[in-house]
Specification:
It contains 8 helices and no strands. The chain has 144 residues and is mostly helical. It has one domain. Helix 1 (9-18) runs antiparallel to helix 2, helix 2 (22-30) crosses helix 8 and helix 6 runs antiparallel to helix 7. The chain starts with 8 loop residues before the first helix and ends in a 7-residue tail after the last helix.
Length: 144
């Protein structure tokens, strides 16, 4: 079961949620080669990753399906500005860091924006996605 690299993260997670068996869910995760998914999963489930942002639902205007100027496949590279303990993040004023995050939310597909909000709140964006399943799919991604 191979997916194109152009599948968006939220689309892959929707496929994951619709899949019935644990084995198939793990295969769905493994079939997606882009680092954006792994970065999101690490951001949700790795306790070492602490977001340098306020929790909750930020005030943003979700993009429409017709106007998504960017993708999470590109925007995940900006996570380095949002993680506590990384100099590029810690040196930024909080207003600038929050603006980067809001810009990300408003330029990606609304589905991926919801994934990002779940990520900074350390919550699974879809039913059935757990740390244990992620560790089975990607054994070296998140330590116990």
């Amino acid at each position: 079961m191979a997916y194109k690299n152009t599948l968006q993260v939220y689309e892959l997670l929707e496929k994951f949620e619709k899949t019935k068996s644990r084995k198939e869910k793990i295969e769905v995760l493994r079939s997606y080669p882009h680092m954006a998914l792994k970065d999101v999963l690490r951001g949700i489930f790795d306790d070492r990753v602490q977001w340098n942002l306020p929790g909750g639902e930020p005030p943003y205007s979700a993009s429409s399906d017709e106007s998504t100027p960017s993708t999470l496949l590109k925007q995940h590279l900006k996570f380095k500005y949002l993680v506590r303990g990384i100099p590029t993040s810690d040196e930024l004023p909080s207003v600038r860091r929050e603006k980067i995050f809001l810009d990300m939310l408003e330029t990606v597909h609304a589905g991926d924006a919801k994934v990002l909000v779940s990520m900074i709140n350390k919550q699974s964006p879809v039913k059935g996605l757990t740390k244990k399943i992620v560790q089975e799919a990607y054994p070296d991604l998140i330590p116990d």
